[in-house]
Task: structure prediction
Amino acid sequence: MRYFDLHCDTITECWHRNLSLKTNTLQVGLDRADRFEAYAQCYAVWIPDELRGEKAFQRFQQVTQRFYNELEQVKELARPCTTPAERVDSCSEKKHCAILTVENASVLGGNLEKVRTLAESGVKLCTLTWNGENELGRGARAPGLTGLTTFGKQAVKEMERSGIIADVSHASPELFWDVIKIAAQPVVASHSNAKSLCDHPRNLTDEQFKAIRDSGGLVGLNLVSFFLRDKPEQASSDDILRHAEHFLNLGGEDVLAIGSDWDGSAPEDFPLSGIQEIPALYERFRNNGFGQEITDKIFFRNADDFFHQENLL
Result:
């Protein structure tokens, strides 16, 4: 099978805990990637809300350096992918395609010039906020009713010019709709589920999903229990299929992808243990009403087709 995942926090954990990307105790380890015919993974540099200004940018630089150092150590297995040609070559050679992203645009520190720096570093996707408020606007857990700031609107436009996709996972409702209003490029929610099935502030309403669908964007199914079920202790892999079916019923056949959030929460917060369980999940989709074509779209083709667009990966 083929697997394309829009979000994990693994490289930040590798940096934080001084672990290898190849062999580790995390949910993503490249020594377990040989079960995929093709495997593309977006690796997020996570910027905590408490890091601001130059400290946030220093965190980005440190984790990014670790990202490229780790890939250099396993170049027989993987490569960083910043262009469609590199991604196609990686897949054809059965090498892991590693894509750099950022979680929390506080990394910019209110400086538009840093958008270009991110692009030059290989960043292809950036969430505009994390849970709190930053220079761009209000995250999903910050109090208030504000959306994008003036700087936030400028930053979205500059990201689009620079080939960085605006990611609205973690956005407040007001910020989400402000992005939809001004975006000229497709919008992505890399790791968010259906709010009508699990009433978490990070999940998407049906109207939000449809807006992303109409923009030509993507929504990645989040595998963390908190986003799968109102009683997370009862969450199982059945709930992943439940959220997928809901989004498909909203016209999401070409929109839905996987955004696992691996290593973004404690291992016990997931109904799956890591990438080694993805093939079994794929088979559950394929054999439980989704069929081969839809399952392959969700697990690979939709994200692959999306990043093949001009100005994207």
